[in-house]
Write a structure and sequence with these properties.
246 residues, Porin, 8-stranded antiparallel barrel, two-stranded antiparallel sheet
Length: 246
């Protein structure tokens, strides 16, 4: 189903976004297989400085990242995103905790808008017996996502760090458009939704605490899941893991 739960007997949603989302799921699945392969080949998770065990005492703000990205939401036109990630340190050997947020805004695909228009036309016909043509024009959707993630980090060849993880996300979604302003349609789009994410990435040390980070993220959220690619610059000022580039 798309953004609006309705039998689509008039027009089908565009298949391109759905194919992209399926590919995103495949990317995550392949990433998990890659992590398992690393373990089987003897790759070792990065360890924290001289500590055999970890607890909440090792959690502290030690770095921050600003990123830009490209988002492919289901039922919404592809668009750009901006975000921030905070590195909160380690919960266990090679187990890092992060939090952050990202934001994007774009227009609903025409197929989604037409589905909603058809629903409204059917509703008017049922209530009044009159046939009307509904034109909602341009409708936008924005998402402010706040996440808390945990991921496992590995040392990989060429002095790089790779990681895979998951986390929970709170999505504050807002709809907009001249035709839907102050209507139940706007209320339908204005929601707070819980989601879960799966992600993986690579960190490239640049020296003096700076890193270049590339990440692929798949957000599972009601009605509008999306695939996201992010590139960011991270600065680390806190304690390092044993063997972690400085």
């Amino acid at each position: 189903m798309g953004l609006f739960d309705r039998k689509r007997n008039r027009e089908s949603p565009g298949g391109g976004a759905w194919v992209a989302l399926m590919l995103g799921g495949a990317v995550v699945f392949l990433g998990v297989l890659f992590a398992i392969l690393l373990i089987l080949l003897g790759a070792k998770p990065a360890q924290a400085q001289g500590l055999a065990d970890f607890d909440y005492e090792n959690l502290n703000l030690r770095g921050a990242m600003v990123d830009v990205g490209y988002v492919m939401p289901r039922g919404v036109e592809n668009t750009q995103s901006v975000g921030v990630r905070l590195d909160l340190g380690f919960l266990g050997p090679g187990v890092r905790v992060t939090t952050g947020f990202s934001r994007w805004s774009s227009e609903l695909e025409r197929s989604e808008i037409r589905t909603l228009e058809a629903s409204l036309e059917d509703l008017v016909l049922e209530q009044t017996g009159e046939e009307v043509a509904v034109d909602l024009g341009r409708v936008t959707l924005s998402d402010f996502a706040m996440n808390a993630d945990v991921h496992m980090i590995w040392h990989i060849p060429f002095g790089l760090l790779g990681y895979l993880g998951t986390g929970g996300t709170a999505h504050v979604m807002r709809g907009g458009g001249d035709a839907i302003e102050d209507t139940f349609v706007e209320d339908l789009l204005n929601q707070i939704r819980a989601g879960v994410n799966f992600h993986g990435g690579i960190e490239v040390p640049l020296g003096a605490g700076l890193r270049l980070v590339g990440e692929t993220r798949y957000e599972v959220v009601q009605s509008s899941p999306y695939l996201q690619f992010r590139v960011g610059g991270q600065y680390i000022w806190g304690p390092r893991m044993t063997g972690e580039p400085r």
